[in-house]
Specification:
Two copies of one chain form a homodimer. Chain A has 422 residues and is of the alpha/beta class. In chain A, strands 1, 2, 3, 4, 5, 14, 15 and 16 form an eight-stranded mixed β-sheet that branches. Chain A has an eight-stranded parallel β-sheet with strand order 6-7-8-9-10-11-12-13. Chain A starts with 6 loop residues before the first strand and ends with a strand. At the A-B interface, helix 2, helix 11, helix 13 and helix 16 of A face helix 2, helix 11, helix 13 and helix 16 of B.
Chain lengths: 422, 422
């Protein structure tokens, strides 16, 4: 008989305990449902959840280990740790100059001509040492954690050479070994065609397929392969070829799709069984139908539309109505959206996607777990699941979108340990 | 001969020391100028600035007191402490339900009919005990301080009775005695006509003029008097009468003007020599000319337009071009803009007002000092001024609008003491 598990951490007096225990993914009207226990309590044994329920009952059902830490939530809200399913955190230089150029009316072409865009970050990443990149990336992850993200997907894609793509992914792997945030790595060598292949893109695609993807897969440096599928970057035909190589090498798929124009990326992602298709500002009705059918998660990035300030936002409500699985992410990157905070994204999703607080919470917990293929492990507060938990400084979960631009987190718990807000 | 002042705190190795030492206020193109010392240093003696300059020179010119604390800014940015010139922080209940009703398409009238709006906060304030209001207000001030605001203007206006307006202002006074934030109190009894006077507004105006204003002035509970001058709230005629009483009682003037429609509030504010007119979403060309002429500061509240999400923003560029003194504020309040962060407002000012980082910094330092009639004391890093200073986690001040939704503050210093980020 296994020894009885004892609680090492107890959170009591929770005003609203949001468990998200219901259906996964949350589709259509189900996104509006919030699984809420008033006067709740959560008991944790080691890195797992031991009990979830009414505060009194939870305390009564379990026994406490010696030295069990007890946290009084003071009637505040507790939710699952947030999952950020689309980030580009490995870079050194900020690109604040491009932000200012944009607000002064410069076009994408003018900014690129002045040396800006993804290629600026590629030069930066290649030139910058591993210790500096590690320090800067770690600082960003610290800020994500402080904002409530306990798991993130993180992409390479500013290297665009075998060596520097490996460098990015190894930095993520090394940080992952010690940082509380759980990192799910994605290879994004197909983010752009680098300068040295501008005149011979076929050769770069060859490099991706024959060298980069097999090497990354063999070294187990990435779980996903992503691509910027867009007219002028990688076409549908090129994307199909590259992503087939990724599948052949055992990588799961994500797509940057329909971000700048409708190019059919959503349809291709659905056709190829991608786990997610992201951005989708210009998704077509056919794309929406295809994603609903395939179950490919739509990862929406409201901060990118906000920060680029063009006035176009992904048709989130249409996707929800058509039963697409919708998640939300920061897109944290030095060009189009430099923010580590999913709280900020929840406010933007409310204002610009017209998503309620409950829908937005679904989108950064259970549905975001689906977007990183962790639906069976993350995004819910349930017995035996990892104890990834946020204790908030608010009495009602609907304060999340409304009270904006500040950090409402009180404490973050990752795998049973308080990692922010001691 | 006075004894030589010795440094009690030294900040060295500042990558960009933003002193804002130039002209005050910053008008027109002057707003674009940033006073920046590379490799700067600041020495502080007690609560005042002792020296400002190049890091090496500053250190060479002064002598250090025993136990002088030295902070290495690690090449980061240092600015004056921010000044938030328009806040409503004294309330208990959040109004997150109204935020959600708005995004679901409910009108202002429907929300009011459901018990929402300013009158909901009036019921809340009257019912809530002083200790609870004090605790909640203090928490908001802690968040403002953490975001870099070292001075705020704070209004009453959810009491709307002599007793409860005094209660609000006394809460601010008591917090001010111990909290690091400097609070400049404003009486806003003319925020709305309370329920009990809906059928007899003349009687409420009489109460304002004959009882509330003289009592508040006599008790020295407020430095400013503010009014919601708007069709349907207080008309131009009523506003002139009420604000004349404020002037007669020695209070300085602020106006909520042209927020929902063009009602001529800006013109009246200018005519009456108000220190500031705030909101100004619907200001007329005549209003702009009048304010430029009178020197009345335009306090713009981008968060209110953002949070209400109607798509209308104050014509900031037009005001800047026409030489109006422009400041920015959070409007922190439970209805139309619940945010404590001027950093967030700087991002919104960039995206929606097209203000550069330099202009926005002018707007929350020197020009915000003008908006609270403290131009000679606050908003600049100069010898003998109060040592109100922000040390940032960024290498370039232009990161401020661009890196959004998170707190970029490393440390906040108020009157020479590190009060956030030890």
């Amino acid at each position: 008989m296994a020894p009885e598990k004892k609680a090492t951490l107890l959170i009591k007096n929770i005003g609203q305990l949001i468990t998200m225990e219901g259906p996964v993914p949350r589709i259509g009207d189900k996104m509006k449902e919030i699984d809420l226990i008033e006067n709740g309590g959560v008991a944790i044994a080691g890195d797992e959840i031991l009990a979830v329920g009414k505060s009194d009952e939870t305390a009564g059902k379990i026994s406490l280990a010696e030295g069990c830490k007890v946290i009084d939530a003071k009637k505040c809200v507790v939710t699952p740790g947030f999952i950020d399913p689309h980030t580009h955190p490995v870079f050194s230089k900020t690109r604040h100059d491009e932000f200012e150029m944009r607000l002064l009316g410069k076009t994408y072409q003018e900014i690129a001509a002045a040396g800006g865009g993804i290629r600026a970050s590629v030069r930066d990443l290649r030139e910058t040492s591993v210790p500096i990149l590690t320090e800067k990336t770690t600082h960003r992850l610290d800020m994500m954690l402080a904002s409530g993200s306990t798991t993130i997907e993180a992409k390479s894609g500013y290297g665009l050479s075998t060596e520097s793509e490996i460098k990015s992914l190894e930095i993520l792997k090394n940080i992952s070994d010690t940082h509380p945030i759980e990192i799910i790595p994605t290879f994004l060598g197909a983010h752009e065609v680098p300068d040295e292949y501008r005149e011979n893109r076929a050769k770069y695609i060859d490099l991706l397929i024959k060298e980069m993807i097999p090497t990354i897969a063999e070294k187990k440096l990435a779980e996903f392969c992503d691509i910027f599928c867009e007219d002028g970057v990688f076409s549908i035909r090129e994307s199909r070829k590259i992503m087939q190589a990724a599948l052949d090498n055992g990588l799961k798929l994500k797509f940057h799709a329909d971000e700048l124009t409708h190019s059919g990326g959503a349809e291709l992602a659905a056709e190829m069984g991608a786990i997610s298709a992201d951005h989708l500002v210009y998704i077509s009705n056919e794309g929406i139908q295809a994603m609903a059918k395939s179950g490919t998660v739509a990862v929406l990035l409201p901060g990118t539309s906000f920060s680029l300030n063009k006035g176009y936002y992904a048709p989130a409500r249409k996707m929800i109505e058509n039963k697409v699985v919708v998640a939300i992410s920061t897109d944290c990157n030095p060009g189009s959206s430099y923010s580590e905070s999913l709280q900020m994204m929840i406010t933007l999703a409310a204002l610009h996607y017209k998503m309620t607080a409950a829908e937005a919470i679904s989108a950064v917990t259970v549905n975001a777990a689906c977007a990183v293929d962790r639906a069976n492990r993350l995004g819910q507060l349930r017995v035996s699941r990892p104890a990834d938990i946020i204790i908030w400084n608010m009495l009602d979960y609907r304060e999340l979108p409304y009270h904006y631009g500040v950090n409402l987190v009180n404490k973050v718990i990752k795998k049973g340990k308080v990692v922010y807000g001691q």
